[in-house]
Amino acid sequence: MNNSQGRREQRRRRVVQRRRDRMKAGAAVVALGGLVVLGTAGAAAGDEDLRATAGIQLASIALPLFAEDRASEPTPSAVPDSAESDASPAPESTPAAGGGEEEAKQDAAAADAAAADVVAAEEAAQAAAARQAEEAAASAAAEQAQAAERAAAEEAARIAAASVPVDDPAGAKAYASSVLGSHGWDASQMTCLDTLWNKESEWLTSATNASSGAYGIPQALPGIKLATAGGDWQTSYRTQVDWGLTYIESRYGSPCSALNFHYANNWY
């Protein structure tokens, strides 16, 4: 039974009790009226025994009414335990439990928010690290590309320089003078060699005879013969000097003999 039902039951009992009280009052009035009648009659008769008998009869009429009414009233102990428990206020633990549940929800929400913040921070850090790695990789790639471009440019310049004949008459003469001894000649042969090759090419590495196709300092004919002395025969005076001295030694024996033949034939 809930609180509202208990209150209705209590109101009903009070109404019944008031009705019973009115009934008792009426019975008492009737009993008193009878007592007056009997008392008056007894007084007129002057009989003490009759008055006593009338009082006993009146008590025997009124007392059972009051006794019955008291017996019918519920005592405090007669109220069912279930009614008392129903009428009692709700336990204080219910609001506390509700408040605790709400607090637990708030704590859980705060924990979820904190966890989300941690995850977001970690993701942001990972994204920043990824960006830094990408930037570093891009920078390294750019540096490598620039280095490759520089290397390619240097190589192209080297190739271009290598493909250009080094016209250095002084350098060519100095080199020729330094290697005469390896062919068994003394320094006097350098004078004849200088005269011979000055007539042929002026000691120019790039010297070319357009009519015959002769090439280089010694004017090899055809110029490809110089390749037997080295792959750089078109650009290196050293290679050309080596080939020319070997040719003179094998064909004329010495630079001065080659010069004499040239004077006689205008070629050697």
Low-confidence runs (pLDDT<50, min 5 residues)? Answer: 40-47, 75-93
Summarize the amount of helix as a percent range: over 70%
Count of alpha/pi helices: 8
Backbone structural class: mainly alpha
Report the order of strands and helices.
Answer: HHHHHHHH
What distance lies between the first and last C-alpha atoms, to the nearest angstrom? 143 Å
Major beta-sheet overview: none
Number of domains: 3
DSSP summary, beta strand count = 0
Share of β-strand residues:
under 5%
Q: What does the oligomeric state look like here?
A: single chain
Average pLDDT level = 78
Which geometry do the CA atoms define?
rod-shaped
Radius of gyration: 72 Å
List the helices and strands and how they pair.
Elements: H1 3-45, H2 48-72, H3 81-87, H4 93-163, H5 169-179, H6 189-200, H7 237-251, H8 255-265
Helix pairs in contact: 1-2, 1-3, 5-7, 6-8
Walk me through the structure.
- This protein has 268 residues and is mostly helical.
- The protein has three domains: 3-87; 91-163; 169-265, no CATH class.
- Helix content is 73%, strand content 0%.
- It contains eight helices and no strands.
- The protein is rod-shaped.
- Mean pLDDT is 78; it is low at 40-47 and 75-93.
Concise description?
With 268 residues, the protein is an all-alpha fold. The chain is 73% helix and 0% strand.
Keywords:
single chain; about 270 residues; mainly alpha; 3 domains; about 0% strand
